[in-house]
Design a protein that fits this description.
The protein is α+β, with helices and mostly antiparallel strands and 91 residues long. The chain has one domain (6-85): Beta-grasp domain (Ubiquitin-like (UB roll)), CATH 3.10.20. 26% of the residues lie in helices and 32% in strands. It has three helices and seven strands, in the order E-H-E-E-H-H-E-E-E-E. It has a five-stranded mixed sheet with strand order 2-1-7-4-5. The chain has a two-stranded antiparallel ribbon with strand order 3-6. Strand 4 and strand 5 form a beta hairpin. It is globular and about 40 Å long. The chain starts with 5 loop residues before the first strand and ends in a 6-residue tail after the last strand.
Length: 91
Amino acid sequence: MTDRKKVITVLYFAAASTATGITEEEIDIADEGVSLASLGEILVARHPETGLDEVLAGSQWSVDASMVDDPASVMLKGGEEVAVICPVSGG
């Protein structure tokens, strides 16, 4: 049996994309999964000194195109598409 990596795809928009310099990346996760609430720490560690931590502090998450109200209640198991949704200003 071949071991398959468990990955999630993270999509970066607006300020998150500007901070990281990319629009998407794949993140390997542990076999037991990772909570959405802890994903921000993983992303900041991958992109240190970019200001991503500040961007994430004011952003929301979307998992598989559904907005998430409580990141602590979501466990990512692999295969999900997670988007960083930055605040939008208008006038």
